[in-house]
Structure formats: C-alpha cells, structure tokens
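Recap quiz, item 2
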Amino acid sequence: MGKEKLMTAIIQRSLIALLISVTLPLLAQSEQENLPPLANFDESGWWIIEDLEIPPAIHLEAVSMLELDEGRVAIGTRRGEIWFVDGLLDDDLAADYHLFAQGLHEVFGLARKDGILYATQQSEVTRIIDSDGDGTADRYETVSDAWGFGSEHEYTFGSRFDPEGNIWITLCLSGSYTSDYPFRGWCLRVNADGTTTPTCSGLRSPGGVGFNAQGVAFYTENQGPWNGACGLKELRPGGFVGHPISFPWYKLAPNMGPEPAQPTDGEDGRMHIDAMRIPELIPTSVVLPYKRMGQSATAILLDSSKGAFGPFENQLFVLDYTLSVVMRVTTEKVNGVWQGACYPFREGFSTGLLGGLLSSNGQLIVGGCCRGWPTRSREPYALQRLRWSGKTPLEVKEMNARPDGFSVTFTKPVDAATATDLTSYRMGAFTHHYWRFYGSPEIDRTTPVITEANLSADRLRVDLVVSGLEEGHVHELYLDGVRTVAGESLLHPVAYYTLNQIPL
Amino acid sequence: MIAAIFLLTSFAGEITGSDQEPPFIGAYSTEYRNGTSPSISGGLLLLGELGCTACHSTTDGSSRWILPRQAPRLERIAQRVDPKHLHQLILDPATTHPGTVMPSLLDDHPERQQAAFDLVEYLLSRSPADSHWQPTAPDQVAIDEGERLYHQVGCVSCHEPLREGAIQPLHSNRLAGRVEHWSQPQLTKFLKDPHQVRPSGRMPSLGLQHGEANALAHYLLRSTRVAAPLDLAIDWGHRKGLDDSSRSRPRNTTITGSFSLPDQQRRNDVTTHFSGWLRIEQAGDYQFFLKVDDIGRLRIDEKDVIDLGGKKNYQRKKVMESQASIHLESGLHRIEVSHFQWVDDAILELEWLGPGIDRGPIDSSFLTNSREPLPPAPRWNRQRGDAKRGQNLYLQLGCAQCHEDGNAATVDSVNTLEQLSGPLPGHHHPRYPLSARQTADLEAALHFLQDRPEAPAAQQRVDHTLRSFRCTACHSRGDLGGVAQDRNDFFTGTEPLLGDEGRLPPPLAGVGDKLVLDWLDAVIRSGRSLRSYFHTRMPTFDHPQTRSLAADLIAVDRHVTGVPRMIHDDDAMKAAGHQMAGSNMLQCVLCHDFNQKHSVGMRAMDLVTTTERLHRDWFHRYMLDPESLRPGTQMLAFWPEGRSMVPELLGGDADQQVGALWRYLEDGDQAIFPEGLSRQQQELIVGGEAIVYRGKLWEAGFRGIAVGLPGGLHYAFDAQELRLALLWKGRFLDARSHWSSQGMGRIRPLGRDVLTFDHGPDIVFLPDVNCPWPGDRQQGIRPDDYQFHGYKIGEKKIPTLMYRAGSLDIEETMVAREAAGDSWLDRTVKFIRNSDSGERGVFWMRIRDVPPAEILDDGTVTYDDGLRVRIGSGARPSALSKTHNGVQYETWLAFSASMEESHSITIEYRWGKKN
C-alpha cells in the first residue's frame, strides 16, 4: 500500500513535470494560481508608469528595442515587424509609427553598426538595408545562420554590438530540454562580417542578452533543469554556464577546447562546489530568488542616462515576463568572478514584459505580450514608459561584498542611530540544488550574524561586519530598521547578494 | 365589362357577412387595403397574386401588365405535410389558413367531405408511402438558434415575430397555424431552396446554410410533441466533473428509447444527459447498478443516487462501477442519467433490480419523457379516399391549373380575362373571400385591361415587380415601400457605429444610376451583398419575372454626367489615389475595409469592388457630395464646396483627386493596401504587393520563407536546404498558430492545388555524373559551401532570393503570370560564377526527383500531380536517371561548368490536370 502510494506520487510528479515541459517551457514555473500577492511597496510616487498610445491598426508585441538617432526608436515584434517610432522619448504619450521592415521570424534582438540595422530573428542574424532611401527596408541579407533550428521553442535572442563588432546570440535548447540541433543551448558571437564564434555552452532557456557598464555580456536564464532559480549569468568566452546537455557540439567548436567534465548532479550537486572542480563552469552571477524576484527574467537594460533616470547610473534593469515587473541588478567582479545583488524596483506593468530600452535621456520603455505562458498582467500587448519623478526614495543603491561582510550604499544619507543599530538588520543565506531536476527549493539555509555596522562620514554607506559568510550562497539582507534623519524608511528594504566569492 | 362586374360581384357576394379573412398579399395590404378610390395598380397586383391567369387566358397586351404567381407544386406534398391538415385545408382554405390565396373549390360540391378525402388520397398516392409525413422530436438547441435566426435574417420582414409577447406589426403574412403541420426535414429542405416547391419566388431564398435552415425549421415546429421513453441532450466540450459546464456547449437534444449512448458518439469530450420519468408500479427498495467510463451519475427525484466522478475529482480512462439502493413509492419519479466521455472507451451501463424485477436494464415500458401522457396521435385512415376519383376531381376542379406549372390543359369555356361575360361556368368555380376593396380594385384593373392599354413603361414594370416580390418590405424607393416603423427594430447589424446604414437595407432611389448592370443583376438574382455587417440577408430573386428588373432600373434612373479628363499620367494617378486612401490623408480605411482586411474603425463596406460596382460618373458625383445622393449617410464630404482637404496633392484639384481614387481602386483586389488598415488579422491576404512570411512552415522547414504573390499564386522556399519547397494557388496563409499562444506549429498553405518538391539543394555541382550528391538529401543537410544570403525586395515587393551554391551565386525571382485565362509562375534563376576554381564538371539544376509523366515536344515536362514545367531560354530538360537511395528518374537541367560569368534561365510552373 505504502509502496503503491509512493509510486503514484512519483508518477504524478513526473507527469506534472512532463506537462510543464510540454506546455510552459519558457517559464520557470506555471502556477498562475499560486502567484505571490503583490508586494506591499508603495512605488507609485517615484517612478511613474505611463501607457503609450499604440495606433489601433498595429498589434505591437514589442520584444526588442533600439534607440536610433534624434529620439527615434526601433521596435522589433513577435510578428516579425520592425517599426520606427518617433516621439516615444518625449513628453506626450502619442508617437508616429512607420513600418520599416516586415516578414521576419520573431525579432528578439536589434543592433546597429555603421548606421545599418541588424536584427536577430529566430532563424538568423540579418542585416536590414534601405538601399534606395525611401524609409523602408529593401534588402534582407543573411549575416549568419550557422546553427541548427528544427524544434519548437528554440528561441534565439540577440544583443547589441560589442566593441569588437559582435552580436552575442543565445540559443534556447530544443523544446527547452534537449539539444537536437547544432549549438542549441549555446551562446555564439556573430560578427558583422558573418564570422560566427562558439562562445559558451550550457544555456537552457535564455530570456535576453546584454552588457553591463564594464561591457561584460550577461544573459538571463530561467528556472529549470540545472537552474534552481532564474538568474543573471555571465557569458565568458570558453565558459560553460550550467546545463550539460549541449556538450555534443564541442565537436563543432574547436576554439572551445575539450568538453568540460560533467557536473555532480543529484542531492549533492552544488554549483559553487562543482565550479571549483570544473574550470569552465561559470556560477550564476546574480541569482534572482524565485517569486520574490520574478519568475521569468527577460531583457537586460543598462542605465547609461547619466542620472536622468535617477540615482542608479550604470546599473542593470532586468524585466520579468510572468510578474510584469522591472528589477534592478548590480554587478562586481570579485577574485575574477562576476557576482552581485538584485533589488525589487517597480511592479504594476500591464503586460508580460519581454523587451525594453533605457534611453539616453532616461526613459525606460517596456513592451511585450501576454500569450502562451501565464502572466500576472492581462493586456494582450502594451507599450509603457517608466519615468523618474525626480524624487529619490531611500533605497539600497548598491550592496557590495567585503572580506569581512558587506557594504551597503544608500541613495541618500541615513540616520546614524538606526543605521548603526544592529537590530535594524536581518540576514539569511541559502543556495539551490544544482541538478537535472526542474528548479530547486532554497536549501542549506543558514543565518549569518551581523556583528558591526559602521557608518561612513557622509552617512551614505554602512559597512556590515558579518560572521558566518557562506561562499556560493545567496545572502538576503533585510534593512527594516534603517531610516533617514527625517524618518523615511527604505522603499524596498531588501537586497539579495549572490556571494560566489568572498573578496581576498 | 358589365358582365365582368357581374361576375366579380357574384364572387364577392357569397362571402358578405362571412368572418373569413380576404386573401393576404403583402404589398396589397400595405399599400391599397385602405385606399379610398379603386386602384388599377392594386387590381393588377391582385390579378397576378391570386393566379387569375392560371385559368383565364389573356391577350399579349394584358399579360405584360400581370406578374402571375404560381401555386405550390404538389408532387411531394405527402412528404411535407400532415394529411389531416391537408384535408382541412382543401375543405375550407380560408378558415384553415386565414388570408390564404387558395380559393375554396368544394363549396358547392354535393359530397364535400368525400371529395376532400379523395383529393388527399390522390395527393398521397403521388409519393411513396414510406416517405410520408412524420413528426420529428424538437431539438431545443436548434430551436434556440432558430429563434435568433428567424428574428434576425429577414423572416420578420414579411412574417410576424414569433417570440412570446412580441408586439404584432401590421401587415404580416402570418405563419402561426400555417406551418406546424410540416415535416421537419422537408421544411429544412424548403427553407434552403423555397423555389423548388414555390416556383414563383414570392418566398425568396435567403441563402441559408443547412444548419441554419434546420434550426429555423425546428423553431417553426417547436410545439411538436413526440412521446418517447426518454429525452436526450448532448453537449460538446471538456468538463472537469459533470457540474462544470464552463467549456461545454449544447449540441442537440432529441428522444431515445433507453439509457444507451448514441452510436455516433465516438467523439471525445461529449456529455450525454438522459432524462425522463420512471414508472414504479410496486413500492419498495430498488437497487441501481451504474458502470461508466469516463464519468457518470444517476439522479432520481433530483437527488444523486450514484455519483461516479460527477464532482471535480474523476478518474480518467478508467471503468468505474457502483451500486445504490433506494426506496421508491409507486408513481412517477424523475430519473436523470448523465455521462461524460473524455477519451478512449465510452461506457454507460445502467441496471436495476427491485420487487418483481430481475436485475437488468430498465425496460422502456417503465419510462416516459412526458409526465402527462400525450393523447394518442390520430392516424390518417387511407381507406377513406379513392385516388382515382381524387385525380379526376383534381383535374375537374381546376387544381391542376394552378399547381402544375401551367402544364394542365386549358379549361374550356373560361373566358379570357378581357372578355369575362356570359353565364357562370358550368363547373364549380373557385371562391375567393375577397374584400369589397379588393373587388373594386379588380374591377378597375379589368376595366383598364379591356381598353387594351399600351405595354407598361419601365417605371411601371419596376414598381410592379418591386411590389410583387416584396422588395418594398425592406427597401424604399422614393415614396414606395421601405422598412415599416413597426418592424424597424428587427433590422440589426454587427457594427453599431454604422448607425442605420449598418442595419437598414439601402434605399433603391437612383440605384440604376449608381450600380452597373452586371452588379445590379447579380444582387437581384444571386443576393450578392457586400454589407456583411447586416444581420438581415439579401435574398435571391432568380425568376423570369425579375430578369429585366436590373435593366429597367437602369433605364429609369440612369442619367450620365461627364467625368473630367485626367491630366496626370496613370502611375501618378494611381500613386495619388493610394496615398489618399491611407491613414495620413483622406483615411478611407479608417472606416472602410479593404480587400478583406479590416478597417480599424467601423468596418464599413469593403472598397475593393468599388469600380466593379459603380458607374464612374456616379462615383464622381458621390465623392464630391455624398449627402446629395445618399441623404443621411455618414460618409464625409472630403471636398466641401469643391475644396480639397489635401491641397498638396495633384494641385488640390478635386476632379483630379477623385479621378485618382477611381484609378487606384480600379486595381481591385490587386491594389496595394493603403496605410493604416488593421494588422490584427491573422490570415495574410495578398493584394497588389507580395508578402514575405518567414517562419516554421510545413514542408519548407523552420527556415521557410513563404511568398504570397499578387496574382494569387504562391510559393515557399526552404532557406535551410536552398530549394523550392511548395507551390500553391488561392488564399495565402493564416498566421494564427504563430501569432497566438506560444506560436507553435508549422503553417500550411491556406489555398489549394498545393504542389510539393523534394529535399536537398536544387542546384548542385558534379565533377561527373557518377559522383555522390553533395550534402545529405534525405536529412536536408546542405553542403559546406552552400549558404543562404537573403533577399532583395523589388517592384511590387516581390523578393529576389540570393544564395550561394558552391562556386555559383544564385539569384532567383518567382513571378505570377496570367494570360488567356491561365495563370502560372515564372521562376527566373540567374547563375553568377563567384570564383574560377578551374572546376571541371557540370552544374545541375533539379526540377523534381520524381519520374515525369511525359516530356512533350515543346520541352514541357508533366507530372502525375498536375505540375507542368517548361524551361525557357532555349534550355532543354535532360532526363537524368540516377539511383540514389532508391530514388530514380530525375529531371535535371544541365549547365556546363565552363559557362560564362553569368547565365539566366526561366522555368515555367503551371498547374494541369492530375492523373
């Protein structure tokens, strides 16, 4: 009887896993009914969401965006169009739409070099030229299609150009589980001249690819096999980012050297421990704790607006499809490994966010659609703008690792009494399984102890001395008690730091 | 003339004081019934509608004034109608069907009853006995749909509303009491094509689909009651437990004899509900046994007795059984059994066991679908009449005159219409319960005809035809007709923003000035309509009496006006028209659909047939002042006072601008779409410009490129394998599966005559014929130095595909051609050497890997599936027989590797007959 019950449970679990794999592979998890309630942050007064008008004739599932010249924005859509839109970055909500290109296969990446537009579509990277200058594309030139494409869910995302003239493309696994065609589950670099270089193996179901302020490429990965939670992962040439099913294609990539060793798998699998043994394995740079920091991370946007968007210059903003939120991420390189922290930023968008742009004048434009996978929002598609009100809330501007703990920089000076009071803070640490199964609970929980809180003279930074730091664990820091002199508490009194390395 | 009056008075005199309704004729009732002086046109209408000329012959002169209505054909009347009712009708038409135009013929017959029996028997004998009338159990699902249709598609333009409590408009051709005796299948057939039975077309065809006619028939026969053991209701759609009906919808209801699943129910996601009354003769404990797959439930007296998964948690794909015992008093008990079939096996078995009853299925004698027993239906006794006598009567009484398409012999001793005089005819003459008004009007008409009038003018023919066919019930034309105030609310549409223009049939004033002959004729005779936003349908009036209506309307209405000469060249005009129609100028497409693509606004009439429909000068006048030709239209005046709203175009000249719009619209469905149409649509419709669609395609692969060409011929190229993959005709494709949900699936051609081609690159280099083929043609892997390079967009947005095949660069363009009623594709392939590798050998271009059916003298290669390929530019096909993985007989073209720098050929692809 007991045995039979166990068998039933196992069968049910694998059935559920199968169902999820068949129906909802892009998402880390599908439980629409179990989405967490909206967090209780009053975000509305600081960064303001505006609905941008879309002409009724246009079904604008905006999934990629690029700022062109003079305030013009290029928008790539799931329906394979590229729109040139004027007036998105100015004050009013209306804009002029002009159809530049069409007939493409889901434009999940736009880039520009020497004045020419490049689109990453599912089947290839394409150079799109308006040779007669009439404002509409008339040449679609294949730059590279040097990878296999033959199963459902083999999505392709593309970055902008890096300084070497490469677009970084991330290739989802076949059906998000296997690697049935060359380079599924890989990152490739496609040069404008067509040269295509295998760059990383081990991807599962990417959601977007971009660069941080130092020009390092990262992509967003979704919870699933070999990924306990969603996360921001570094794409280092030669690296392996975690999912070993894409190893067969090392035979087509001599530049990548031999196939890496297999990860440990099973109950004992831990990514930071395997990373010591497998040199190619790049641990997740910033883990996005599941549900608290989204459920399906998508585009990565860098704030290079020189303060026009607020105090987070040079930080990253990551969109989430399921919860329709924008999150904030900071990165730093410690002992040669990228790591960093993530912070809640803004929720309340009206469609599943897939693509966006943080413009040079500090406008965050987001777009996407609600179809195929559940979302908390309901608009079939939408285009929205997030604008800084000019007022700065008290926020953790950045959390950084120190040899003996962490430093926390605030957006404005804090009150010395609360900031140095140890009871203003709480800390926990956890990690995930690194295994072939779908996702992972938060495991190996510990409670590091904050023993000192030392405030800087300008009252903008507090250095926390922590005993019990756990390398390879996410450290969640709650700052409920910290106040400004005026008594203002933090808008989001929480930060999650992925401590891959403790600084030497 | 005096004689005529005498005769008529004698007709009418018989009914003085009678409460029988006079014959109802819609147009007469609305226009003449309350007239104060005798009306010749009213009388002429009656002469036609009452069928006077079926017996009374007329001179040619008179016949031009009369549009005779023919009585229903009776060959299969026995299949259509309950004989009991037929008997009543023959005995006393005016009482049985108040307002009928059928006269009474048996009033003076010495044995009326017997004569009626004989006539019925004769009519029954004209159909095989096994096909005679039978009642059909009503289908509640169809009834609901029928009720909607009846009040929406136009039935209530002439007939009365039948919803309970509906206010009765005046002048209805009443159906209540006149339709309930029909057979359901025959009524469906009749509604689909009324002209088969009623050839004079007064009851027009509304172009109903079978399902619509079936629903209407069920609705009209909704009061039918058929006794049976059980009622049965079937729903389609998935359920999570029997109580969840959020995804299921009713399919149909009927009757059945037992708790067994209908045979045809071998579909998934079907719910079957049985309901009825269980007759318990002996009170006691009864035990029920239920066995189901997938789920089911037994309820007695509205309480669950056995519930196998009726609630949310049910086992799938598993047989379940259970039993329960309950005490039942004697009497009738409500019994309901529900079953949901999810997948695989469908099982429903119900047994019982009780006092004096062995275990087994419930015998139908214990079940009834009606709590009150239905009175036994009286059976028609066929012994009472004699067919032979009936046939004689049928001829003697003159029934044949009206009911046999005018094939009956002329009745002797009946005078021509103009010469009605002398004594009454010796046989029993027909009696019409005419009103005094009708009598007076008939007198006036006869008087008029006796004066041998000239043939009616076009105007008179038009009015007479519009009245006789009741066009005037829906359309106004000047003072004539129009939707009556008390029926106005029944005219509805799908586009409320269009106001009355979106629901009320258009007025016919000036219609002959507006529409060209062919279009107008098609509207009248085949119900052609562009106003898809109307719920009311334009009926079909294809009858000899309507054949000259279009020409007559044009003769009466048309007044040609000049159209200014166009001073710009054709291309400039077309371009200006295209620009004006778009979203930045006049914005025609803000309100109007265009070539099946939706407008973003109110979805007014599709513009693509404008020049096919309208007289050009009318269009010109209409554009400059819409209100003058269509009072009350929402159409804006874009050239108020002759001043253009787009002064920057064509010098702001209104005449030139209207001319430009016309010129642009002349391209019809090949016109380039204006800017600003809705892009929400998922079917991609090809207009005057090609459409390129890249995505996961059936046969052409994930790197497929589908190209829809102006001209309605399309192809798909496989950019992975570098080959032509598909050709097809007609509709291009539907992007729905990629544009909804996750975007899964491979899209197939939406059109017809799909031709497929083989895997592997079309162009290969072979050092010699015996070399292996480059790449893997079965796996579709292309050779190393093969690469797709993209495409460039040319005229009409037609793409030229570019790729590399070894040391050749290829550019190819597919264009649709049309001539002499045939259409085909020209594939022009240009070969450019990209290196001088000193290769020795030959390039081959494949046409197909399958054996050709034939190679004709002119070089045309034909295939069994109908494909015909001809190579132009002097190239000859070389049939190359080669075995590769069992595939033989391939037709390839050969080129010498030492050819000049570039070389081009054109290959024609045509569709021929399939073998």
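Chain B touches chain A through 36 residues (CB under 8 Å).
The radius of gyration of chain B is 36 Å.
End of item.
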